[in-house]
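Table S2 (continued). Query chain:
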Amino acid sequence: MDSVNPAAAIDAELKRLRAEGARWLEARVLNERALVMDELRPNARALASHLLERKPELLARMRMAPSDAGDGMDLRAIILSPTGDSLRDVLIFVANDDPSVAFGTWHTHFDFDAGRGATEAANLVDAILCDDFVMLALYDKDARATTHVCDLREEDALADALTSRYTTGEGRLLSWSGGADRDVSLATLKM
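Corresponding output:
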């Protein structure tokens, strides 16, 4: 049986995911145009306002596109990673009237009905841009690489991911800026 190099498996998976992400993103930027706050649907306007309060420089990255429901314009923003790696870009959008954030192959939606959706989405974007919320490429016991997200603001998040019964305990952190990138393993953790 051939020995599999964990780093090579992770590199191959990341390359595949970059190509998949490029196709996904291309389908979502059709019909985009310059942002006009007054033309955004209310939830999209609230999200844009929360983001701009914290990071006014994001205005240059914000666009709008017809909503999926066809009843107005929704927010779209792509924050390019300074690494040049498209897999690390952050996509902010509104889906089904809820704010959404995508990072790598992962995405989540926030519930506007709970009254916190725009704030929670803006908090997550801040964490990603500060390299506190990162991607974790793990080498699993089936000799494959899989990607996950890891919230480094949570004390045991990395240890929990590396000690999963499905992983060999080896992986690579990938951050938005590249500043938190590193290979990780159970041996490198101070447990």
